[in-house]
Every structure is written in structure tokens, then in C-alpha cells.
Write a structure and sequence with these properties.
Distance between the termini: 29 Å
Order of helices and strands: EHHHHEEEE
Oligomer: single chain
Shape: elongated
Structural class: alpha+beta
Helix content: 10-25%
Largest sheet: 5 strands, antiparallel
Length: 143
């Protein structure tokens, strides 16, 4: 997954896309709770979560959002790209054992400010669990 290759703004083309897959485990959820400070029992307490509409523990929604950041930072555009904004629409819960496939697709280039707009989607079993749109600042090729 790791890449050190910098993709410059001039190398981008509308339609480019990149994806990563991540399987959500109990350890991942516990680590995210520790790092984020979000210890909502729907994420951590099976007995509590079983009494909710989800009928069991679910992953933090922002965990899926973090997977989007990983695609941007490591694949497309890659190192040097900077997040400016991201919309998120949560469509379905992610549960322990689910594999989240995160895909970003370049939909617009804004050359005057070296910005790139992307569609973002996370799926589980080909069904969207998170959709959104992101705007990134992408470094220009050095002169």
C-alpha cells in the first residue's frame, strides 16, 4: 500500500481512481476508540449494542472516513496532497468482520488553485456504507 511517489497536479486526469480494502476487527474498533476518544457503547459494549437497532456492535462512522484519508494520502493523489473539505453521508453500519472497500474517483480539476474534487465511497459487499465528496490541494510539479 505504501508509496513514496508524489503525483503532481499536472499528472492528474478526470476519471482516475484508486481503492483500498480494510477488514474491520475488534482490535481496530478498540484502537480507534482509544485514539479518537469516542467510547460510545454501540461500538464497544456488545450487550448494549445488541439492544439497539443495529443488534450488535458497529464500527465508528469516522473509521470509514479515515480509510478515505488513507487512499488520498497513500495512493491518489498520494503524499503531499492536503485535505480541504469532505462531505460524508452514512448509508449503513459497518460491523466487525466487514471488509470496507474505499474508492476515490477524480471528478473535477480546478487548475487555477491546484485543487482536485473527488467522489468518495466506502462499500461492504458492493453496497455503499458511506458516500461523499472531497476537495484536495495537490502540489504542482516543481519548476
Amino acid at each position: 500500500m505504501t508509496t513514496n511517489k508524489i503525483t503532481y497536479f499536472e499528472d492528474l486526469a478526470v476519471g482516475q481512481e484508486a481503492s483500498l480494502s480494510n477488514t474491520v476487527t475488534e482490535d481496530v474498533i478498540n484502537a480507534f476508540a482509544e485514539v479518537s476518544g469516542d467510547r460510545n457503547p454501540v461500538h464497544l459494549d456488545e450487550a448494549y449494542a445488541a439492544s439497539t437497532m443495529f443488534k450488535g456492535r458497529i464500527a465508528h462512522g469516522m473509521l470509514s472516513a479515515a480509510y478515505i484519508s488513507a487512499v488520498f494520502g497513500m495512493k491518489l493523489p498520494g503524499p503531499g496532497a492536503i485535505y480541504l473539505s469532505q462531505t460524508l453521508s452514512f448509508k449503513a453500519p459497518v460491523k466487525i468482520g466487514d471488509t470496507v472497500v474505499t474508492t476515490v474517483k477524480l471528478v473535477e480539476l480546478l487548475p487555477e488553485k491546484k485543487r482536485a474534487r473527488f467522489e468518495t465511497v466506502c462499500t461492504v459487499n458492493d453496497k455503499p456504507v458511506l458516500t461523499g465528496e472531497a476537495l484536495l490541494m495537490v502540489p504542482a510539479r516543481p519548476a
